[in-house]
Amino acid sequence: MTTSFEHDPLAAVLAAEEAVTNPRGGPEFLGIAQARLDRRGFLRGLGSGAALSAFGLTGVSLSACGGGSGTASSASPAPARISALSFALVDKSRNDQLTVPTGYTARAFYRTGDPIGTPTSPAPAAYSNVGTDAASTYTQRAGDCHDGIEYYGLNDAGTAADYTGGNRRGVLAMNHEYIVSQFLHQQGDRDGAPGSAKTATEADREVALHGVSVVEVMRQTGGAFSATGTWDYNVTSTFNRRITALTRIEMSGPARGNPALITKYSPAGTHTRGTLNNCGSGYTFWGTYLTCEENWAGYFTRNTTTDNANRGGSTAKSVISLNRYGVTGDRYRWGTLAAPDAATMATNAVSDTGNDRFDRWNANLLALDRSLDYANAANTFGWVVEIDPYNPNATPKKRTALGRFAHEAAVMTKPAVGQPLAVYMGDDSRGDYIYKFVSQATWSAADVAPTSLSANRMALGDKYLDSGTLYAARFNADGTGTWLPLTITNPAIVAATNYTFSDQADVLINARLAGDAVGATRMDRPEWGAVNPLNNEIYFTLTENNSSGTTGRRGTTAGSGNVIDAANPRYFSDARSATSTTTAATNTGNPFGHIIRIREDANNPASLSFTWDVYLFGAQADADPTRVNLSGLSTANDFARADGLWFSDATNIAWIQTDDSGAFLDQTNCMMLAALPGSVAERRALTAQAPSTAVSGSTPVGAELAATFAGATVTASTLRRFLVGPRDCEITGVADTPDGRTMFVNVQHPGEDTAAANVVAAAGTAGAGDFNSYWPAAERAPGSTANINGPRPRSATVVITKDDGGQIGL
User: Fold this and answer.
1) Residue 20: CA count within 13 A, CB half-sphere
2) Confidence (pTM)
3) Residue 21's pLDDT is what?
């Protein structure tokens, strides 16, 4: 996921990670059905006797064009693919508001800093939102920058999991990707004067605001469950907990105990502290949550000149690995509080409260033994982390068999008894890869979603996620593809010249380097994945790839490097006009992004081959129709930079969310669209188009297209805008109740691009100031940019219901 770091003191760290860590250039291609249900749809199907027999189980209200609130009812069977979307479409907007269609109501209810507690640990006081809350309270507050989210149903009594009927009460697990530091402290991004040294109090707040929230939600009246009440989170629930960048987490799978994971904190290489930059998410068929560590590499301080030399120079394996992952920078300056040398570090005992809690951000090689420093700390990040949302006492585990990279999401196709499971993942970096993990274990009906809260779900994760084969995708120019095994026995990995792999754990810890070795296809920033419950086809958003840096997407005439190809076929420029909050700019490469679609051969998750097409191209409605707007977008559905992607099992609607940090912000804030995708079988062959020599609509000269395969063109009936967020936000993360009548959507970093001076000037005035956004506490009138002297903006979860009580989107 792209993030805006104008006010981040080391913004270039993340930009570098997304742009330049894959040095491999040149051509990227060789030579250039039974409908299934997914996740809860699969579980819903178990409600019938026939299905059970088949599996061997016979024994502040937000701006909307309407108001009101519906009540949840019992789960309904998922419909077949509906033929047309008919809700009132939402127009593009630059307003500082969250807008949903007429007939829907949206309300923010779990915001950055909101207190959470348990029956034995009372919640702290309400959040001040001016940076005066004690740092010690932040482990019991909602994190910042809400992101991926999943819903886990409960029965009305809250005493058992209910995956198909838990429509009034459940548990939300959600990610907190990063922080907007200028809104967290008293003086902007500092408690003291701007530019002053980072303090322990500031760092402790920031560390705690990363990670994951697990929080109970329910319809309630007066804080007690009520079947017809209003949705809110349960402030004091046994399910509530925060997993932060300091929480103890177990390393699991093939890399557990590997020398590359040894740190002062865990000399055995079996544990680490915390999870970072959690972006997309996933949901397992045994009822656990998968959270994905994305842009974690920029959190560690490392002097590349001295550290590379201490490690043996540019050809040393650890240096090659660190460079490939872009580990440098100290994004939030937590490392400035760390011990600077081995002698000082030796005096700091391992502790979550002492100085050692900061030492772990110093990734420089300081000692002769890795158990005496944190030179390997970065190797313990970049994983998929499994969490049991129903059991607050279960230790989270990092599943190393799924590989280490900038994980964006982890999604599964529907399991079938006797077949392995497949997990699909994207590496969110320009020029990096799409991956698949296939389990060694085959699916057993006995493992389907246990209802007991005390069930050992993590043991099922051990069974299915700790042993198997990791693959990287190669997309061929003829519309086929190949899954390339990332194994120590693969001759391409054995023969790798840039990096010598020692064992399978080394391959997984350095999955990017393994992908390089086997010749996987470099993609335009693979982000969220999703699986269509109607046909098991897999989708990935490819958010963008501008032509800057060594991995930027270029046209065939734009010099050497990462040129366009069939799976990443567009090269064009887009001019963005200046607005009250953005400057004019021209983006070149693939600035609007696209969504790719995969169908496994024989619909088999273990298949080594597949067919593919580009389901949808992001574009401005008036862009060149032969090179840019290839999906036929109109003003009802034009968009830029798809990021979040998710299918509802209740309605089979695909929901597409945007993370636009610059391409389309002159016309609209970020948005969420509803879609009715078809199938790879509907694909069209598009012929290559040479660079244009004349302006076409909003597209300047020089646009070109590689021969490719595209999905059917869309209409306002098969793709339409459902939601537009407030200013400077990203719309990211979506889930619904099993009946599809309540939806949860996350709004991340509203007002993020507010000038630092405006925040500092507001210090001491109860948080009021001239911010780009005041959401969710206040909203400007439509079209207004006036300073309303309101409170600091906050990320938040939004609950959406249909006023007539119906299913969302239908």
Assistant:
1) 12
2) 0.92
3) 61
